[in-house]
Amino acid sequence: MPSASFSSTRSYTRRTRRKGSNRLPIPSRTSNSGGVVEAGVTCEPLVAASGSYATPGGASTSTSSFQHVPPYDLRGRKSPLHLHDASTAGFNATAPVHPTATRPTSPTASATASVLQSAATPPLSQPARKRLRRNTSCTITSSDNTNSAAHYLQCELPDEVMLTIFSYLYEQDLCRIAQVCKRFQAIANDNNLWKRLYQSVFEYDTPLFHTENSRFDFIPFDESEHHNPWKESFRQLKKRCLHVRPHYNGTAKDPVRRMPHFETIQAGLDHADEHLNGGAKIFLHPGTYRGEFLVIDSDITLIGAAPGVVADAVILERETESTVMFVEGAKSAYLGHVTLKFTPNVTSTVPHHKHFCLEVGENCSPTIDHCIIRSSSVVGAAVCVSGAGANPRIHHCDVSDCENVGIYVTDHAQGTFEDNEICRNALAGVWVKNHANPVMRRNHIHHGRDVGIFTFDNGLGFFEANDIHNNRIAGFEVKAGANPSVVQCEIHHGQTGGIYVHENGLGQFIDNRIHSNNFAGVWITSNSNPTIRRNDIYNGHQGGVYIFGEGRGLIEHNNIYGNALAGIQIRTNSDPIVRHNKIHHGQHGGIYVHEKGAGLVEENEVYANTLAGVWITTGSTPVLRRNRIHSGKQVGVYFYDNGHGKLEDNDIFNHLYSGVQIRTGSNPIIKGNKIWGGQNGGVLVYNGGLGVLEQNEIFDNAMAGVWIKTDSNPTLKRNKIYDGRDGGICIFNGGKGNLEENEIFRNAQAGVLISTQSHPTLRRNRIFDGLAAGVEITNNATATLDSNQIFNNRFGGLCLASGVQPIVRCNKIFSNQDAVEKAVANGQCLYKISSYTSFPMHDFYRCQTCNTTDRNAICVNCIKTCHAGHDVEFIRHDRFFCDCGAGTLNNQCQLQGEPTQDTDTLYDSAAPIESHTLMVN
Q1: Full-prediction pTM beyond 0.70?
Q2: Angle at 714 between CA 711 and CA 719, to 5 degrees
Q3: Residues 659-714: tens digit of each pLDDT
Q4: For the chain, how big is the Rg over CA atoms in Å?
Q5: Measured between alpha carbons, how far is 440 from 468 in angstroms, rounded to an integer?
Q6: Strand runs (DSSP E) across 361-474, as ranges?
Q7: What does the alpha-carbon distance between residue 47 and residue 63 come to, in Å, rounded to a whole number?
Q8: What's the Cα-to-Cα distance from 905 to each of 340, 819, 881, 908, rounded to whole Å?
């Protein structure tokens, strides 16, 4: 009032200073644009251009009176009807302004809010004035009670009381009142205040953010980047929202918020179509919505709204047709956080042709998010996506415990399926057929009562990082022209197999882990031709990869190990390509080819398997090239029972048995291989085995480089057989064979030993530098020797036992050391040159006086010296070492002097010898 004295103003200032200790120290701010002016504890008057200041009523008075305007005068502020700053952005700015801005049930709240409104709302006729900055206390004329009340509210009232007052306001008015001053702004943005407000509308326990189109994310309070997550979530969700809340006790129309509420979902959809022209958000509050046939043909958002696990509280259920159907027009529709149930009444006689809980039709691409989907129908599927242009995004859903198929994608449909739980369904977890091409990532597909994923009838699809396990049939089945891509999945603990490809199935299986399945990790059959690449296939209760029934396929760069049966099994006219794999530590063999199996097996590493590295049997004809087959606990490559095929350019080494075995009618071609380090020889051909061994290197084997036994008849051409720790080639027990143009050298025993009714043919071989004899024939054996060169062997070139009469033509036997004849001539005991590791061929005797048998051979020099005057008998000219010199007889050998040289070095591989070509030339 103009008549107010300055003294009264001064006394009010003192009261303000005494009570101001609990107030927020908020400085004043003047908007340069003439907009919002936020005042603090210290207030300045608004001074007109003429030197006068404005009164609350708009009158001017002289500056000599020094009358002050009330604090927090909001002249220059825009009308609350037109506020669009950051505090109110996103809320309904077109809603009518209610001066009380409170819930109508509280008279006290109405009165209190009137005072707040008087402080917050200036006269609309006042122009913006520039505020002069003065160093004065917060003063107010005592004659204006309204302004005093406003000052008290703004400056004096404790925060707790202000918070209680603000709790009666709706969100729109809270945003407006926050513009009064910084203190109001701080209190109006209280998190607990907004949380109560938010939960009264949306009921969520955690703020839900509409981060982008068709995407909603719950972000916990302590993980949010927003200062007030509840307010920010409210801002994002409020626009164009409707509520379906059956039996809602509040106001049905909610005029302040303009959030209509409906009893049924269909009513909400109809309202959105009529009034909101698409893009509306419909919040479905707790309840079970039965019987509504929902056909979505627009970009509507349907989302559950409830505390706790939202989908558990919001249930949509139907007994006929589909529970929810998306059709053309639903390009960006959204359905989230609800439970969908399809529970047909089996006793009902009402016919229906739809058997799906959720159906997505042609030319629509809705988002289905965090839904629980159940179907008790014994036909159809819980989710059906069909038709060209059907391209939904289904993620974080639970499709479980259904009495049929979980997800069915067909008829050129697509779709992205991510992070879903698909389990315990009666039929397949996922069906893909008829050129459908979905993308499925990070799904958990398990404990199905049928197959995990079934692609058939030309189905496609890209399947990445899925966890597929404990399904009753295969984890992944491909049939009838289907061609899926399966990448980085884990397929394990299947009650039958891991992957089953049959009936002309295709597919690419890349970088997967396939393990612990009861049957084979991968089955390929009936003209199927998949690509199995860079997978880990291990710990199967049967085999790793099983190819049968004319199966094919590319098996490449896989790590196959620890399986109970063969790492790779090929049978019944199957013809795969197997290359660059590691097949190791199997409890059975490495590769097993049988029953007319074929295939190209190249550049694999096969090692440390319990049985043979490679088994080839029963009419099979694989081609093995450039493999490393080593360190097995039995044989390297085993041909038996008419096993055939080609073994070319492989490294076969370090097996506890021989490197290669051929028996019982098997007739392979073995060419260009390196076969070494076998503890039972290099190559063993026995029991009627055949085969062509050509241009191989066979060396450093503990026993014979090549054994030919028991009526076997192989052909050996141009092989190099050397540095053996026993003989080069040993032919026993009726063995035959054609040995042509081989080089046999530096072996510890005879280069070629022929014994016991054997009759091989040797042509144009070079047998040299042996540590024993070149060729020895004994024990009623015979041979044909034609045009061979036998030279520089220690014990002699050609050594024939008594009664042996080979066919010998055009051989060159020269420069042999004849150590046996020299030892006899020098009067030495032959044990001196042979020890017990070699069996030189010479005349052996027995001593009847010493009661020796014909098995106790005594060399001629020991007969002359050690058994002089005894009754002795000539036995035969044959291979023995001297028992007298060995000390096995009762008499001490008189010819033995110092111990014989250590012969253990005979078991070591020969040191490499460098070529002298450059030095000579």
Answers
A1: yes
A2: 140
A3: 999 999 999 999 999 999 999 999 999 999 999 999 999 999 999 999 999 999 99
A4: 49
A5: 12
A6: 367-369, 372-375, 381-386, 393-395, 398-400, 405-410, 416-418, 421-423, 430-433, 439-441, 444-446, 453-456, 462-464, 467-469
A7: 9
A8: 81, 19, 19, 5
